[in-house]
Design a protein that fits this description.
With 383 residues, the protein is mainly alpha-helical. The protein is built from 13 helices and four strands. The structure holds zinc ion.
């Protein structure tokens, strides 16, 4: 079945509709956040929140900054909860979610708290560097931020993910044996493969390479493990191993470092501009936090197509690795078809949608690449 020419399958109206709404949701979410930041600054509400924070924080800088952040994140959550809830209803409506309202609400609370903890660490460090080294704060903040980022990438699989999902080591002997064979082929060792209990929340399937150093691992959703053949799972594993062999996590960290350095430089420039124009009295006035956030949001938005293009490049590399290391492309093709079906993915999104929004090549392109590979293998069989 691997090499038969397959016509590109048209997307169902259901898949089209679902993905369209999802995109509008993310655009809406982005717009709400953007307008919120602009209004805070233009209406001087940020100053008012800062004064309130100082009042409650007994004029202590660090404590007041923390209170200010709680207020800011609290309001922003209140503004965004409607869209979040709509997203939850959407997954239920298209029968992609198995989560109940209570469990969803609990996840929201946990998400908020995790955001608050991480956000507090980041802003306290940020304004500490601004106060201590006003001239070079952005360089120091960048170095600290990257250190934190690497630490978080390492801790995420063991500390962050378990807050939301359960994981257990994969116990399927046949699969483990296949993984060892794949790993030997690549000359590297994967520290572990974990069963990710996604089915508690979703019907969708997923797999990923996560972590750094000794936490580096492949996670496979139980929704995938329980419904795919061993050969199909092997193809998915080979793809994830491809990410590992091509050092995609490490490379992404370097890309992130370069972007973040530019981001901090731009933030410093913007803050100085704002102080020079008497919008804030000094750099360390934390009422300017929405301005810093605005710089980061605008920059992320502008860079999104480029970062997605880079990610799609990595995905193609990982796919190619899977073609090279598995016996035939058949299981890869059937796993892609299953994934598209199960996740209600668009196989053929419009060109600009793929260009702007997608971190993975469209399913139709991935299938075409697999079929192309299969044909060249038939033409030049290798022993
Ligand atoms: Zn991938």
């Amino acid at each position: 079945m691997a090499n038969g020419p397959t016509l590109p399958q048209a997307d169902s109206p259901e898949a089209r509709r679902y993905n369209q709404i999802r995109r509008w949701l993310s655009v809406g979410d982005f717009a709400v956040g953007l307008v919120f930041l602009i209004v805070l600054l233009v209406m001087r509400w940020s100053d008012w929140l800062r004064d309130l924070a100082y009042h409650w924080g007994a004029q202590n800088y660090s404590l007041s900054l923390f209170i200010y952040l709680v207020l800011l994140l609290g309001i922003s959550r209140a503004l965004g909860i409607g869209l979040d809830y709509y997203g939850f209803r959407l997954e239920r409506r298209f029968k992609l979610s198995t989560q109940r309202l209570g469990a969803w609400a609990w996840d929201e609370i946990k998400g908020f708290l995790v955001g608050l903890v991480l956000g507090s660490i980041v802003v306290e460090l940020l304004y500490f560097t601004i106060r201590q080294w006003p001239q070079y704060w952005w360089l120091l903040a960048w170095a600290l931020f990257m250190g934190l980022f690497v630490l978080l990438a390492q801790l995420a699989p063991v500390v962050l993910f378990p807050i939301f999902y359960k994981f257990e080591p994969l116990e399927n002997e046949d699969l483990r044996r296949r993984l060892v064979m794949l790993s030997e082929h690549s000359g590297t060792r994967v520290r572990g493969v974990y069963r990710w209990k996604l089915s508690e929340k979703s019907k969708k399937a997923n797999a990923a390479l996560t972590g750094l150093g000794n936490t580096r691992r492949i996670i496979l959703a139980d929704t995938l493990l329980d419904n795919y053949t061993t050969e199909e799972i092997e193809a998915v594993l080979a793809h994830e191993l491809g990410h590992h062999v091509h050092k995609h996590i490490l490379k992404s960290i370097f890309v992130q470092a370069a972007i973040t350095l530019f981001g901090f430089w731009a933030a410093n420039w913007t803050l100085h501009y704002a102080v020079d124009h008497h919008l804030f009295e000094e750099l360390s006035d934390f009422a300017n936090l929405p301005l810093l956030a605005l710089v980061s949001v605008v920059l992320s938005f502008l860079l999104m197509p480029a970062l997605n293009a880079y990610s799609r490049f990595n995905e193609r590399q990982a796919d190619r690795y899977a073609f090279e290391t598995t016996a035939s492309v058949g299981p890869f093709i059937s796993s892609m078809n299953k994934l598209a079906e199960q996740n209600l993915a668009e196989r053929t999104p419009s060109k600009w949608v793929e260009w702007f929004f997608h971190s993975h090549p469209s399913i139709s392109r991935r299938l075409a690449a697999a079929e192309q590979w299969g044909k060249t293998q038939d033409a030049h069989p290798q022993a």
